[in-house]
Design a protein that fits this description.
Number of strands: 0
Number of helices: 13
Strand content: under 5%
Radius of gyration: 44 Å
Shape: rod-shaped
Distance between the termini: 148 Å
Largest sheet: none
Order of helices and strands: HHHHHHHHHHHHH
Structural class: mainly alpha
Length: 375
């Protein structure tokens, strides 16, 4: 019902504004306060939009250049409102075009008092800020667009405070729709391929805030829950990466440059190579886990950094493995030579003993002498 009433208000305002513009145009020739659009078409920039940062202005492609705070006369405001005619932002959101048309009529009707000036300044500020927000959205600068749209909402509040409730009502309808469209754009960005988890969380949070400002409480709730769940999972992954890298870095600091090749590792750490090899296996597994988690979260440069540490750990593991094998072979060889000598001596002693035993047996046997013819 609310939307139907608002649409009726928009239609009525359009019809009223169209008739008013036609009347004002016919009387413009005799109105000494009316001037051509070029009369006040000098420098135009929304200085009232100082809440928007400099990079926001640089990110937009709006061709509107109106200095809202410098305008004083009705002629100045008329020229500024006319300069906004045909802007894509006003065409896309017809409520703002209705506001502009009504403002054109208002500045040409009756006296132009201080209250009228401040009200028209607020209306113009609203239109200019929204044009900047719309242009930023068209350039896919969603954060800048959101910031400028928020500034537009503040300007709308100022218009209502200045007695322009009709203007503020129409502007609020358009802004709600614009914020919802920004929410959809932010949400779509969060689903994009290759986006990192932190960027996805930020986009979902911005989408939820845009939905909230646009009056879409159900989408705000859904997106906020999703952002919270994703952030919780990301915190666990982040902790796992930090712990893995702590283990890896502790090992690399302990091993040092001496573990770069097997010979250096053996000469520096000697038998400590075996313990370092065990630590290297643990560090290599930890760094590999960190790389896999980073890749799953599309961390980009961070993944490359972790991969570099993993490669360094793998190289050190290989050096220590070779060093441990060389050291084991050396120990085995050192033990084998004396063992072989001892075994050889024992074997020789055993042969000699057997031979001596056989000789003693043979010498103890009685010798029988046989003579011819004897028995």
């Amino acid at each position: 019902m609310k939307w139907i009433l608002l649409r009726i208000v928009v239609v009525v305002c359009v019809v009223t504004s169209t008739v008013g513009v036609a009347t004002a145009a016919s009387g413009a020739q005799t109105d000494t306060r009316t001037s051509t659009p070029d009369a006040a078409a000098g420098r135009i920039a929304d200085t009232a939009g100082s809440t928007a940062s400099a990079d926001l202005n640089a990110a937009t492609a709006s061709d509107v250049d109106i200095d809202v705070e410098e305008l004083q006369s009705s002629d100045d405001f008329l020229a500024a409102f006319r300069q906004l005619a045909g802007q894509d932002s006003l065409s896309a959101y017809s409520e703002f075009e209705v506001i502009r048309t009504q403002a054109v009529v208002a500045v040409q009707s009756g006296s132009f008092e201080d209250a009228d000036r401040e009200r028209m300044r607020g209306v113009l500020r609203t239109l200019v800020r929204f044009d900047v927000a719309y242009a930023a959205a068209q350039n896919d600068s969603l954060a800048a667009s959101f910031e400028s749209a928020t500034a537009t909402r503040e300007a709308v509040s100022g218009v209502e405070s200045a007695g322009g409730r009709v203007y503020s009502s129409l502007a609020s309808v358009a802004l709600d729709r614009f914020f919802r469209s920004l929410g959809e754009r932010f949400e779509q960005r969060s689903r994009g391929d290759g986006i990192s988890t932190p960027e996805q969380i930020a986009a979902l949070k911005q989408a939820g805030e845009a939905y909230r400002l646009g009056g879409s409480s159900d989408r705000f709730a859904e997106v906020s829950v999703e952002a919270e769940q994703l952030e919780s999972a990301w915190q666990r992954d982040q902790q796992a990466i930090n712990e893995s890298m702590t283990t890896t870095q502790r090992f690399l600091d302990r091993c040092g440059a001496a573990c770069a090749d097997p010979v250096s590792a053996i000469s520096t750490h000697t038998v400590g190579v075996f313990g370092l090899y065990t630590d290297a296996r643990e560090a290599s597994a930890a760094s590999g886990d960190a790389v896999r988690i980073a890749e799953a979260n599309n961390l980009g440069d961070r993944t490359a950094e972790l991969q570099s540490a993993a490669d360094s750990t793998s190289g050190t593991l290989l050096s220590l493995a070779i060093g441990s094998a060389i050291l084991l072979f050396a120990y085995a060889l050192a033990l084998a030579i004396p063992t072989m000598l001892v075994a050889s001596r024992i074997s020789a002693w055993a042969r000699d003993r057997r031979a001596a035993s056989v000789g003693s047996v043979l010498s103890a046997m009685p010798q029988e002498v046989y003579t011819d013819g004897g028995e």
